[in-house]
């Protein structure tokens, strides 16, 4: 049976470009953004939208590794967790965004071959130094995407003023 997995996959897609009860999805937010603004920090202590996408991409790539190998390699303190604009600007907004979008498609492709029992299988969580069911990371990724979607909305408001 794939009921729970299909629901998760649909929620990932909806958060990216579907209809959400809460309103804006990532695509709508990206369409509000001028490319040059992707690297702007509206306040010194706020991340840029590109920095947030890079951060989300890292944790998706880490999830891909967990699905493929049963263990991750990154921790919250790793340098790649929050790459600064100085490292992202040379890549360009289109590459940062493409990496982000490709990482989700890779996860969805990996889940396409699984059934709901996969969600109860365990992987090793490097930060927490313990074993957790895949359901934990896959639901957590969705929560993480929503959290940062809200931040992006606030950043866009700051950038417009």
Q: What's the CATH superfamily, by name? A: dinb family like domain
The CATH class label is Mainly Alpha
| Span of the ends, CA to CA | 49 Å
**How much is the radius of gyration in Å?**
16 Å
The run of helices and strands is HHHHHEEH
**What's the β-strand tally?**
2
Give me the CATH fold name: Four Helix Bundle (Hemerythrin (Met), subunit A)
* Average pLDDT metric: 95
Number of helices: 6
Pfam family, one: DinB_2
Domain DinB-like: 23-152
InterPro entries: DinB-like (IPR024775), DinB/YfiT-like (IPR034660)
Organism: Aureicoccus marinus
Describe this structure in words.
A two-stranded antiparallel sheet has the order 1-2. The chain is mainly α. The protein contains six helices and two strands, in the order H-H-H-H-H-E-E-H. The chain has one domain: Four Helix Bundle (Hemerythrin (Met), subunit A) (Up-down Bundle). Helix content is 58%, strand content 5%. Helix 1 runs parallel beside helix 6, helix 3 runs parallel beside helix 5 and helix 3 runs antiparallel to helix 6. This is DinB-like domain-containing protein.
Question: Descriptors for this entry?
Answer:
161 residues, mainly alpha, Four Helix Bundle (Hemerythrin (Met), subunit A), 6 helices, 2 strands, DinB-like
In short:
The protein is mainly alpha-helical and 161 residues long. 58% of the residues lie in helices and 5% in strands.
Q: What is the fold's blueprint, element by element?
A:
Blueprint: H1 3-17, H2 26-31, H3 49-69, H4 85-88, H5 93-112, E1 122-125, E2 130-133, H6 134-160
Antiparallel strand pairs: 1-2
């Amino acid at each position: 049976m794939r009921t729970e997995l299909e629901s998760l996959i649909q929620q990932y897609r909806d958060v990216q470009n579907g209809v959400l009860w809460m309103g804006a999805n990532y695509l709508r937010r990206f369409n509000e953004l001028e490319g040059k603004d992707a690297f702007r920090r509206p306040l010194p202590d706020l991340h840029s939208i590109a920095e947030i996408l890079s951060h989300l991409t890292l944790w998706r790539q880490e999830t891909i590794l967990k699905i493929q190998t049963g263990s991750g390699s990154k921790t919250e303190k790793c340098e790649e967790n929050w790459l600064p604009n100085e490292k992202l600007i040379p890549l360009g907004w289109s590459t940062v965004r493409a990496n982000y979008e490709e990482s989700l498609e890779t996860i969805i492709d990996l889940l396409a071959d699984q059934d709901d029992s996969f969600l109860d299988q365990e992987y090793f969580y490097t930060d927490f130094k313990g074993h957790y069911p895949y359901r934990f990371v896959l639901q957590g990724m969705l929560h993480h995407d929503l959290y940062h979607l809200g931040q992006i909305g606030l950043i866009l408001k700051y950038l417009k003023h």
